[in-house]
Automatic annotation (TrEMBL):
One of its GO terms (biological process) is guanine metabolic process. Keywords: Hydrolase, Metal-binding, Zinc. Gene3D superfamilies: Metal-dependent hydrolases, Urease, subunit C, domain 1. Pfam families: Amidohydro_1. It comes from Pseudobutyrivibrio ruminis. This is Guanine deaminase.
């Protein structure tokens, strides 16, 4: 797949910032060598030599970024949701992930995950694998072929993993990580490595310190979990008694990252002012996973506070605690969670607007990958073309209304084409 140059014509919607959605009915968006040259209400004559793809009345939006998803958990999404986090991990997650020591099992399971990712609204994703090197390489091989641009992490965990899912020692875990990095060096076009301590209860102090050092030495980003569940938070305090907060525990081990190497912390349901200050100081990203947080009864993250504080934030499906890889569903549940936080937790914290949620799903999360998630000039051209013609209505809806309707009721909207950096990686006509 090589980047190409073309113009798409259709009903265009994209963010320029968090407060508004720019729309053009019958507008044009230009791609030159994989880079967006802007969106226009009238045909841009300076690009008249480019091929024009007329998408008719279909919606054209930027691709979406999933900042947090567990590939090995895809096989049991939507199952076991009566448990809370720690019980769910021990009863469902860890026994399932242990199966990925079998490469044939991993190959088949990751095939399902990779194909779903290729077909959904996601054009960029940050992915957890398991602690198994061979299976992680298999996942990266498969994802690279989809054309979706991803970070993938071999998980580190040398304690509290249960039968078949615990590395022998910090030294063994770090050595396995180095071997994995050496094996994949220079191998991929679309897939990059990310260091992945599962969370502090899974990683000894020695392992956490080693990963912080490895991140600095090799210029590698880190992903993990933060303040998802109250029992988890209490456990971290026992494990790292010198810490002033869960986020500070990551700081102690030099794993909170920098603006140049931003760490992704999933959840942050109970992050207070101290943790918010730490996240902002380090340029970290929060992966907001509302579906997962409600399914496991973890709580409601104060997403408005994070956004207003200027903390980097995007959305995560968090499959399998999140039940679906559909980012449209993720947007809907995140909107509902924001409203419930306002109504049930703190009436001074106003719900997010639809414009803000659309921004988080596209440009906000996309910024983790650089200039991604918008049709502004100079952004990488990620786009999804959507047919919503079966969503019948007597109203002559604006483009913005159609986008909102799709999020609140996506049953009759489907993707017809999907582009990443100008490459068409999926078509419903296949």
């Amino acid at each position: 797949m090589t980047s190409s140059s073309f113009i798409l014509k259709g009903c265009i919607a994209f963010s320029e910032g968090s407060k508004s959605i720019v729309t053009y009915r019958g507008g044009y968006v230009v791609c030159v060598d994989g880079i967006c040259k802007g969106a226009f209400s009238e045909f841009p004559k300076r690009y008249e030599n480019l091929p024009l793809v007329d998408c008719k009345n279909q919606l054209i939006i930027p691709g979406m970024t999933d900042l947090h998803v567990h590939a090995p958990q895809y096989t049991f999404r939507g199952i076991g949701m009566d448990e809370e986090l720690l019980e769910w991990l021990s009863k469902y997650t860890f026994p399932e992930e242990a199966k990925y020591s079998d490469l044939s099992y991993a190959r088949k399971a990751y095939g399902y995950f990779a194909e779903d990712l290729r077909r959904c609204f996601t054009t960029r994703a940050v992915v957890f694998a398991t602690l198994h090197n061979e299976a992680t390489v298999e996942l990266m091989d498969q994802l690279d072929k989809t054309g979706v641009i991803t970070y993938v992490g071999k998980v580190n965990m040398d304690r509290n993993g249960g039968v078949g899912l615990e590395e022998e020692s910090a030294e063994a875990s770090l050595q396995a990580t180095l071997e994995w990095l050496e094996q994949i060096q220079g191998k991929y076009t679309n897939t990059m490595p990310i260091l992945t301590p599962r969370f502090i209860p899974s990683c000894s102090d020695e392992l956490m310190k080693g990963l912080g050092k490895l991140s600095a030495e090799k210029g590698l980003r880190i992903q993990s979990h933060l303040s998802e569940n109250q029992s988890e938070i209490a456990w971290v305090k026992e494990l790292v008694p010198s810490s002033t907060s869960y986020a500070n525990a990551y700081e102690i081990f030099d794993t909170m990252g920098t603006a140049e190497l931003p760490t992704i912390m999933a959840h942050c349901v109970y992050s207070d002012e101290e943790e918010m200050a730490i996240l902002k100081k380090h340029g970290a990203y929060i992966a907001h996973c509302a579906d997962s947080n409600m399914n496991l009864a973890s709580g409601i993250a104060p997403i408005r506070k994070f956004l207003d504080a200027g903390i980097n934030i995007g959305l995560g499906t968090d499959v399998a605690a999140g039940s679906s890889m559909n980012m449209i569903k993720t947007m809907l549940i995140s909107l509902q969670a924001s409203k419930m936080y306002y109504r049930l937790v703190d009436a001074d914290v106003k719900p997010l607007s639809f414009e803000e949620m659309f921004y988080l799903a596209t440009m906000g999360g996309g910024s983790y990958f650089g200039k991604v998630g918008s049709f502004k000039d100079g952004y990488e051209f990620d786009a999804v073309v959507i047919d919503d013609s079966k969503m019948y209505s007597m109203r002559d809806m604006s483009v913005r209304e159609r986008i909102e309707r799709m999020v609140y009721n996506d049953a009759d909207a489907f993707i017809t084409d999907k582009y990443v950096k100008g490459n068409k990686i999926y078509s419903s006509a296949e």
